[in-house]
């Protein structure tokens, strides 16, 4: 597809909710790309700007200031939906919600957006990895009004911009049989253990490495959601539900996976600020585990496994010999994901690269947006 051949009538009207690390980066990338986009709305939790009357926030690029100084309002995701309805009714351009939040409330509103004819692109895992009924309303809903139902794309929910969701879709849709998926699914936990395994006594502490992962934009808004394994469990749920044999396997989503948690008992209910402040008190617990593994010639890695025949879905901290691919080939926030399938036989299809960070996540969101042209 040649972007220069797409006239203004083919422009996508894009409403961006969530302008933190990923959302801001997405807007920057949208400004630079030669495809025709019209920003229809920009919103955060208590503020929103609407451009549904055809005005534009580009190229002036003053949206950040304008958003901060706009009137406070609640439930911006509902306000944005109301503002988008007339755009859909007017016909012509496709209308898209990009949800860059990690909000369950926004995720719960997806069926309403889709039924109103709005398409959805999102890196937010909540809608696809929680209650199965919500997932079914999103993935199997039917048109209720006169407008065609919207479609959704969620590539960045697993492996950030890495082509994990699209690869699994292709494998299944072309009739291959997936037998097992395994790998390192957390950019944060990958970074932490890649760095942590390098040092031993006297090296950087566990908590200081977690702080760098947070500063680099790898962690969830609350880093505890990475360290307790919930983020990996969510990703395993998202992939499992795409595999026909496992679609109904996890009625409560990630909670049914019961991942190994690295969060100290005393910090389980701490908010993000308290969590980071008190984490150094627990450094010695993991240091002991790392040093014991090192004595055996091993390193620690947090892995996820989906076994289709047995229905086993696990997220856990494991020891690997220093020669293993999970020990030797990973750097930074790399994810590595292996698809074992009938067609690929004994040599699994392997995807590896940065699995977290604002730039690569926004790129995955952008690649989904381009699928709508
Ligand atoms: N960072 C990464 O590497 C990756 C991130 N993701 C996912 O991307 C999403 C965004 O992550 P990130 O940018 O780091 O998160 P941030 O915490 O940096 O930003 C979140 C944004 O969402 C807004 N927001 C939160 N709740 C609501 C709500 N109810 N209604 C409207 N806006 C809301 C926040 O606004 P306010 O400030 O007003 O609260 C903020 O603008 C998450 O779902 C994350 O899991 C996925 C893959 C990789
Ligand atoms: N916090 C997540 C971000 C991507 O999903 C991670 O560390 O992998
Ligand atoms: Na991805």
UniProtKB/TrEMBL annotation:
Superkingdom per UniProt: Eukaryota
Group of enzyme by EC: oxidoreductase
Cofactor: a metal cation
UniProt keyword Transmembrane helix present: no
Designated name of the protein: Homoserine dehydrogenase
Pathway named in the protein's UniProt entry: Amino-acid biosynthesis; L-methionine biosynthesis via de novo pathway; L-homoserine from L-aspartate: step 3/3; Amino-acid biosynthesis; L-threonine biosynthesis; L-threonine from L-aspartate: step 3/5
Catalytic reactions of this protein: L-homoserine + NADP(+) = L-aspartate 4-semialdehyde + NADPH + H(+)
Gene3D superfamilies registered for this protein in UniProt: Dihydrodipicolinate Reductase, domain 2, NAD(P)-binding Rossmann-like Domain
Annotated residues for binding of L-homoserine: 220
Catalytic machinery residues: 235
Residues involved in NADPH binding: 101, 125
Annotated function: Catalyzes the conversion of L-aspartate-beta-semialdehyde (L-Asa) to L-homoserine (L-Hse), the third step in the biosynthesis of amino acids that derive from aspartate (the aspartate family of amino acids), including methioinine and threonine, the latter of which is a precursor to isoleucine; production of homoserine leads to a branch-point in the pathway as it can either be O-phosphorylated for processing to threonine, or O-acylated for processing to methionine.
UniProt family annotation: Belongs to the homoserine dehydrogenase family.
Organism: Hydnomerulius pinastri MD-312
């Amino acid at each position: 597809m040649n972007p220069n051949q797409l006239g203004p009538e083919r422009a996508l009207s894009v409403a961006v909710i969530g302008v933190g690390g990923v959302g801001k980066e997405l807007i920057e990338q949208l400004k630079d790309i030669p495809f025709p986009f019209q920003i229809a709305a920009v919103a955060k939790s208590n503020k929103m700007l609407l451009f549904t009357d055809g005005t534009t926030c580009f190229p002036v690029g003053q949206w950040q200031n304008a958003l901060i100084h706009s009137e406070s309002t609640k439930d911006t995701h509902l306000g944005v939906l109301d503002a988008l309805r007339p755009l859909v009714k007017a016909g012509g351009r496709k209308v898209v919600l990009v949800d860059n939040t990690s909000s369950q409330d926004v995720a719960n509103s997806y069926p309403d957006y889709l039924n109103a004819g709005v398409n959805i692109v999102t890196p937010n895992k909540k809608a696809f990895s929680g209650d199965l009924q919500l997932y079914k309303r999103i993935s199997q809903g039917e048109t209720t009004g006169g407008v065609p139902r919207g479609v959704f794309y969620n590539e960045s929910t697993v492996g950030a911009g890495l082509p994990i969701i699209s690869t699994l879709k292709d494998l299944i849709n072309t009739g291959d049989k997936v037998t097992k998926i395994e790998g390192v699914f957390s950019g944060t936990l990958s970074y932490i253990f890649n760095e942590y395994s390098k040092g031993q006594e006297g090296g950087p502490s566990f908590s200081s490495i977690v702080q760098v992962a947070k500063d680099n934009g790898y962690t969830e808004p609350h880093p505890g959601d990475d360290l307790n394994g919930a983020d990996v469990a969510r990703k395993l749920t998202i992939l499992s539900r795409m595999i026909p044999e496992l679609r109904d396997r996890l009625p409560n989503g990630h909670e049914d996976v019961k991942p190994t948690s690295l969060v100290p008992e005393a910090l389980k209910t701490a908010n993000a600020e308290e969590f980071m402040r008190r984490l150094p008190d627990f450094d010695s617990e993991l240091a002991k585990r790392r040093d014991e593994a090192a004595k055996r010639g091993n390193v620690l890695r947090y892995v996820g496994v989906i076994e289709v025949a047995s229905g086993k879905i696990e997220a856990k901290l494991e020891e690997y010999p220093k020669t293993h691919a999970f020990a030797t080939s990973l750097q930074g926030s790399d994810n590595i994901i292996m698809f074992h399938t009938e067609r690929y036989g004994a040599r699994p299809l392997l995807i590896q690269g940065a699995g977290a960070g604002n730039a690569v996540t926004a790129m995955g969101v952008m690649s989904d947006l381009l699928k709508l042209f």
